[in-house]
Specification:
Blueprint (H helix, E strand, L loop, with lengths): L1 E5 L12 E2 L4 E7 L8 E5 L5 E5 L3 E4 L4 E4 L3 E2 L10 E8 L2 E6 L5 E5 L3 E3 L1
Keywords: SH3 domain
Protein name: SH3 domain-containing protein
Organism: Paenimyroides ceti
């Protein structure tokens, strides 16, 4: 278990993050333009809800316009303040899925806002 501390705050820009289930088919959009996050792609489900999804969990279908989701996924971002302590669960493409020590809330945060303790 890796313990990390936030070196700055992070607030999600997305109120209703996309949640996808293994086996779901999504419409694929553009990849993230930032070099550090190039392996994230915009995806929309059949409810027209969209969000950033790591390309590693998508199997491309129909000339890259659709994708099959290979594992359950949530795009929920974790809102944190500076100096909060989190446990890093997994890292992918410049982001980490973390759990706050103080309340067990979980979500994605950019790796650039946390530092190992």
């Amino acid at each position: 278990m890796e313990i990390w501390k936030s070196i700055s705050s992070h607030t999600s820009e997305y109120e209703n993050p996309i949640k996808l289930l293994k086996g779901e088919i999504v419409k694929l959009g553009n990849r993230a333009p930032e070099e550090n996050w190039k392996d994230w792609i915009w995806a929309e489900n059949d409810k027209e809800q969209g969000g950033w999804v790591p390309i590693q969990i998508i199997e491309n279908l129909e000339s890259n316009k659709q994708g099959l989701i290979l594992e359950d996924y949530s795009a929920k971002e974790l809102n944190i303040d500076k100096d909060e302590i989190v446990v890093k669960v997994k890292s992918l493409n410049g982001w980490s899925w973390c759990r706050k020590i103080k309340d067990n809330d979980e979500g994605w945060i950019p790796d650039e806002v946390i530092d190992m303790q």
